[in-house]
Design brief:
296 residues; alpha+beta; 7-stranded mixed sheet; 7 helices; 17 strands; globular
């Protein structure tokens, strides 16, 4: 079976993963992605709703009309597709929620944001949907910087951001604003106007220490930077944890709180407010770089 690089791990997969870098086929795999049957009875869940079930060290994710995923012990993801589903849709949830659950099981802190290499360290941008995280990351790429991870940033106990995949996901209108042609690019799902944009040499495949976390916020005023101090530093990291409700289901919340507190105590954190009107993305990049230079 083919092997791929996934967040510092070697994955042996029954599925082709074109978003990921291929790994040496002689390498010993860390995790396995298997096309198989997923049980749906006999489960005594810690939590249960329409899509998710969990017991300690195991997690079930049911995505309607796509697939059922069984994530086990930080080692396996078993996928049972629904009939007539396309592989792109299967991979979206495999490389997102399913892989996120597995990385939680392996003890990583997952930040929902984008990670960019700056001055030998890692800048992580977080914020609500529509705040402009991916647009900002694409602008940093156009200014010559490299991207470690898009959407999910795993952080080790030592505060190191782990590289993800050599692509960034952009909506069609964002790509157009950035001057990025989408002709020939793969959509992340067939009916969605969102594309996998390959990074090439702009991908950073080396773990880097997280040094800055910026929370993006769209406001009516001009650019502003509001540093987080003291206990206020905890909440932005907690609130921008990827799929944070998975942690309750897998009884990993105490570990997560310790990880957030440790990371918050050793980095620069601030809220960056940007104007709602006008496409002033290059000014935003420079505004953040100026703040980084003041807080190296």
């Amino acid at each position: 079976m083919p092997k791929f690089h996934l967040y510092g791990l070697i994955a042996e997969s029954d599925w082709l993963l074109p978003e990921c870098l291929p790994a040496d086929q002689s390498a010993e795999p860390d995790i396995f992605i298997i096309n198989g049957l997923v049980p749906n009875d006999g489960i005594d869940p810690l939590s249960k709703d329409m899509y998710e079930q969990s017991i300690e060290s195991e997690f079930w994710l049911d995505v309607e009309e796509v697939a059922r995923y069984w994530i086990r012990h930080g080692k396996e993801i078993i996928i049972e597709p629904y009939p007539e589903v396309d592989e792109e849709s299967i991979r979206v949830f495999l490389l997102g929620s399913a892989l996120g659950a597995l990385l939680f099981q392996r003890g990583l802190l997952l930040i929902h944001g984008n990670a960019i290499e700056v001055n030998g360290g890692c800048l992580v941008c977080v914020g609500d949907s529509g705040a402009g995280k991916s647009t900002l990351a694409a602008a940093f790429l156009q200014h010559g910087y490299r991207l470690l991870a898009d959407d999910v940033v795993p952080v080790t106990e030592q505060g190191m951001a782990t590289p993800g995949f050599p692509r960034i996901k952009l909506w069609g209108d964002t790509a157009q604003q950035m001057g990025i042609k989408t002709d020939g690019l793969r959509r992340i799902m067939p009916d969605m106007d969102k594309y996998n944009v390959p990074l090439g040499e702009r991908f950073c495949d080396t773990p880097l220490p997280v040094k800055w976390v910026y929370v993006l916020e769209s406001v009516n005023e001009d650019f502003a930077c509001l540093p987080y101090e003291g206990m206020s530093r905890f909440e932005p990291l907690h609130d921008n944890t990827y799929r944070v409700h998975f942690l309750d289901a897998m009884e990993l919340k105490p570990q997560h709180l310790q990880q957030v507190a440790k990371l918050a105590g050793g980095i620069h954190m601030a809220k960056i407010q940007r104007p709602q009107s006008g496409f002033r993305i290059n000014e935003l990049v420079q505004f953040i770089l100026d703040n980084i230079n003041k807080n190296p």
